[in-house]
Write a structure and sequence with these properties.
This protein is of the alpha+beta class and about 90 residues long. It has one domain: HU Protein, Chain A (Irregular). It has 3 helices and 5 strands. GO terms for molecular function: DNA binding; structural constituent of chromatin. This is DNA-binding protein. InterPro entries: Hist_DNA-bd, Histone-like_DNA-bd_CS, IHF-like_DNA-bd_dom_sf.
Length: about 90
């Protein structure tokens, strides 16, 4: 499902125009994005948790040369599915 399809479904279920549905979806994603940029955790009960994860510095290999390289530490977004969502998918 694409973002546009999600916006259309939201609009149809709530009885909004497509533009209003698209604005609602963008608002939710924007709020999640802003919270993650601040380093906050976003918990959506029954769905899951979004949080920023930190990967430590580690050693790797350059696939072209085979030489050892140092991969620096970095942050990335992570998602953990909630119990309810996991049960539904099983």
């Amino acid at each position: 499902m694409t973002k546009n399809e999600l916006a259309e479904r939201v609009a149809k279920k709530v009885g909004l125009t497509k533009k209003a549905g698209f604005d609602a979806v963008n608002s939710v994603f924007g709020s999640i994005r802003e919270a993650l940029l601040k380093g906050d955790k976003v918990v959506i009960t029954g769905f899951g948790t979004f949080k920023v994860r930190t990967r430590a510095t580690r050693k790797g290999r350059n696939p072209q040369t085979g030489g050892a390289i140092q991969i620096s530490a970095h942050k990335l977004p992570g998602f953990t599915a909630g119990k309810t969502l996991r049960r539904l998918i099983k």
